Amino acid sequence: MTTPPASSGTKTSYAAAGVDIEAGERAVELMQSSVARTARPGVLGGLGGFAGLFELDLARYPRPVLATSTDGVGTKLVLAQQLDRHDTIGIDLVAMVIDDLVVVGAEPLFLTDYIATGKVVPERIAQIVAGIAEGCVRAGCALVGGETAEHPGVMGPDDYDISGAGTGVVNADAVLGAERVQPGDVLIAIGSSGVHSNGYSLVRKVLADAGLALTDTPAELGGRTLGEELLTPTTVYAQDCLRLIADGSPARVHAFSHITGGGLAGNLERVLPAGLTARVDRASWSPLPVFQLLARAGGIPRAELEPAFNLGVGMVAVTSAGYAEPALQLLAAQGLTAWRLGDVTRDEAAGNGRGGVRMSGDYAACHF
User: CA angle 165-228-334, nearest 5°?
Assistant: First the structure.
């Protein structure tokens, strides 16, 4: 039997191991007001329980189908840490989670978050949670719980990662998706606020290879620094999409596609039934200046850009032809940039297989 080494006389504590319980408690105190902002009907109890509780309104949802999604923010976090700015990255998290729920027509109900860090700095954690709370307010969902974990020796003291899981509800007869999409449907693009939260590994490589700093102000950005542009929060589309559904009903709004990793074509394919093809007209819009900058600085060809970035399209609504114009008017009234992107057609060559996405033409006022 191995004999344990004799004690050196030094007393070991959790704090000596790198975990500061008092800092964690202070972080909870600082985030309470932010979490309180997200309260909505259905939330039971408050912050600090073992589980978040939510009472579902069965009068409103007599045939409830629960929708759930989980996601993170990816390597956009690296830029937030380099700039020591942590108040918007939580908005990105909510957008990535909740806008995946709304594509099936689900009303977002609540979200829980998880933050792992090498060292709990209460003020930094509070900034992150404030951003998550702001995202929840924009999405109309409650932040009902979460976890902050300190991982000394595994992560650096200034490193952190965040993730979240959301839940929504939709009546069984109102679920949106590929089975509703028909030939003749119209694709309506809703503009993005920038790079959103995908493609940042490529972004960071372009910056490094081109010798660009986050403090630089390239001409394409009109005076903004690269850091400001690249930390622009992801647009939260949930409430805008729900307004379209409420105005148009499932008979007129057939599907949504959240444009994330995989780009426009990769995500549109996910809402196409067998035998149908989405035809996208590149000439219907000009990619945002930040994408033109990345293409120029990195020498990235179009074939590499399109599956990596949203190129200015953050969400696509698939509507009946007759609802396309009212939908565009409603989106404009909500202050969103939206346009007719293309349409859906039957692809005889595809037979019973998926026809896919056909992107044609060249982008307006842009060359790559």
Answer: 65
